[in-house]
């Protein structure tokens, strides 16, 4: 993981002088993500399917971002992004059970992550390309509780993870319309995280509207607990840029 960080960081230093913002730019956005959850969770060598066994479904998803771009050479631009996914459901784990829990269960899944991204503008015209590094503070909890009993199981992962960052956008001249994609990614030691979205965007004065699809894959082990899940679905967002 250290070698990956050094390699990516070195590449960013090489490309940093290629493009800089002419003036200070500030932007913010909020979005709604209609996401579905699938995959498995494991604790103490017990495994459960979060979709088929626990029937977890969409409850609420919050996403907000803030960025700052500047004309100072060498220094990277800054982007902060917050995502929270909450899912709940009622299912059954049978007599075999999961981590001491059996029968009918009530389950809650809570995923919270805060990203700090440092990035450079490699291209800045009708084709836009940003490259950077992200530090992601990831916290995920799955609680499974017997409906007619006292037994409860909790699967948790908690870590700060370095990830590569890439964003590309193609502007259609004189229309305010653009299409783009952005994502974070890393894979090391049997763990991997991938978080990307593709979108269409319309800008009008300082307002910016997006609609697209976001997909997140998490395969991460923390002690005796492991999450191997995918979260995906369409999103819409509204923002401002100055």
TrEMBL record:
<protein>
    <submittedName>
        <fullName>TIGR04219 family outer membrane beta-barrel protein</fullName>
    </submittedName>
</protein>
<keyword id="KW-0732">Signal</keyword>
<feature type="signal peptide">
    <location>
        <begin position="1"/>
        <end position="21"/>
    </location>
</feature>
<dbReference type="InterPro" id="IPR026387">
    <property type="entry name" value="OMP_w_GlyGly"/>
</dbReference>
